[in-house]
Amino acid sequence: TELNIVVSNSKNPILLFQTNKWQAEDAHTFYYPYYFFEVQIEYDSFLQKKRASKRVIAVNAVTGSTSFSDVYPSFQKREILLHETVPIEYSVQECKKETIEMVRKYYIHHVRIWNPPTITVIKTDIVYLPYTVLYTRKVKNKKSQVHLYEHLSGNYDKLRNSPIIESAYNNLFKRRETT
Q1: pTM of the entire predicted model
Q2: What is the pLDDT, as a whole number, of residue 160?
Q3: Residue 2: beta bridge partners?
Q4: Which is deepest, 15, 34, 109, 140, by most CB within 10 Å?
Q5: For 45-92, how does the pLDDT look when each residue is reduced to its tens digit (9 = 90+)?
Q6: Confidence band (pLDDT; 50, 70, 90) for 24?
Q7: How far apart are CA 76 and CA 16, in angstroms?
Q8: Which of 36, 29, 85 is nearest to 60 (CA)?
Q9: Residues 6+ apart with CB under 8 A from 174
């Protein structure tokens, strides 16, 4: 299956993680689905001046949670294996409806406009963001931990600090073991 994938700037998360304290022993990369919507918002300001703006909304296709995004991600189409992807729980139609409602509420309650805005979705993509789970050991005492490398931001953290990603990863590998 060919999917939209955000491509990491880094070459190899395992090599990047090697430090004088920790050493990565194994890694699994998987892909987590998000919808990205670019919306055009037209509204009357407090002084009745016509205003228009564009915003990018990211929607987690597994949990349905929405958030504003700073930028529309640049991505490329890449072929990946279906068993490396976390299954989508929310359809694009459900997420589009939730996006419009979230933007409407934001503009009414935070931008403080008198009339509801006109919101038009002008661009939609499903994007699979790569995450790599690293199984690591301390060099001196062999204590082990599981870390998460987020390709989009380049951040490392303990997997348990990202419970939604941890749950998706665990469910993904349970699903792989039963097939």
Answers
A1: 0.80
A2: 93
A3: 79
A4: 34
A5: 777 788 899 999 999 999 999 999 878 877 888 888 888 889 999 999
A6: confident
A7: 23
A8: 36
A9: none
End-to-end CA distance of the chain: 18
- Three-class HEC string of the chain: CEEEECCCCCCCHHHHHCCCCEEEEEEEEEEEEEEEEEEEEEEECCCCCEEEEEEEEEEECCCCCEEEECCCCCCEEEECCHHHECCCCCCHHHHHHHHHHHHHHHHHHHHCCCCCCEEEEEEEEEEEEEEEEEEEEECCCCCEEEEEEECCCCEEEEHHHCHHHHHHHHHHHHHHHHC
Q: State how far the Cα of 62 lies from the Cα of 34, in Å rounded to an integer.
A: 8
pLDDT, tens digit, for every residue of 130-153?
898 888 887 787 788 888 888 877
